[in-house]
Amino acid sequence: CSSLAIGTTTGYKLFSLSSVEQLDQVHESNEIPDVYIVERLFSSSLVVVVSHAKPQQMNVYHFKKGTEICNYSYSSNILSIRLNRQRLVVCLEESIYIHNIKDMKLLNTIVDTPPNTTGLCALSINHANSYLAYPGSATSGEIALYDGNTLKTACTIPAHDGPLAALAFNSTGSKLASASEKGTVIRVFSIPGGQKLYEFRRGMKRYVNISSLVFSMDSQFLCASSNTETVHIFKLEHLTDSRPEEPPTWSGYMGKMFQAATNYLPAQVSGMMNQDRAFATVRLNISGQRNICTLSTIQKLPRLLVTTSDGHLYIYNLDPQDGGECVLIKKHSLLGSGKVEENKENDLQPPLPQSYAATVARQSTVPSTSTMPGYSEDGGALRGEIIPEHEFATGPVCLDDENEFPPVSI
Question: Distance between CA atoms of 298 and 386, rounded to whole angstroms?
Fold first, then answer.
């Protein structure tokens, strides 16, 4: 969560956040106008760009070298793109394309998906659990869970009554959060089983459009933002005690009384008794603008970052013990003509326990529709062997070194 990518009418920009006060512009490109999708592979040189000028074409660049790796064209407009170290997912309104990120081969296409006009989908950033989630229905809140490694459907999760509005995996790919178009209830499910683990109530007074849903890297907090001025942060505490018998405390006694009472109440009322309210909140200065949030650790302290569509980044302190109202500590402008600073994000990344090539699975034999010719058949990673960089330097995806990738989650 130390990198930020923005698309503008003139191109796109990449930033690196090394401290609360320091926002470095890593790269700026004005070659393609009207960029509405820009996705960077963690802190690497690989960036995927889609423009309103060619909304059916995906361009993959090595921005440090200023070279295009490849480009793909699809049958309809690209609505969203998701990346991890193993897969690149392209979401259209009624189909999803899954590519192997090492050589950009098309591995599989999920066709005839329910109409997904917003391109809603989520991909686990943990390549070992490359799960993909997308709406399984256009009229109800069913989640389709797909295994990006085995290329098979894992399960379906009946998450909400109404259509889905937001989906997010935690950093290990073991939990999935969801919200419906009503935006009043947020649920967290185990992955790949699909069991409901938590249920949070964002509010009851009005329906809202949740635009951002994100876990903290340690999966202890879940943040939700919407078109209102309030950002909610929930704490994922255990709802049930696994011990055989609770201690005879007053709160434990009352808890049992409430649990017994739910047996005599309507389902809608009893369900609300098990829902937690926000642990912490933020009151934004703006309302009605689309925004994206993330929870990050900067200078060893937990922070909430909020980026708004008017081109600002807000940084708030988060008290992990007591919660409450988060305090704004810094505001950065993203649209100013900033000087391109030296790329420092590799300094933020610990060394990898193994090379990037060793993490890539054996390639599929599905033919590619890429316009980039001349890649090797195995992409330099047949059977997961550790192959020196120069041996697959002619392949389309050749990044600088393994420091361009984040550590493997254990």
Answer: 33
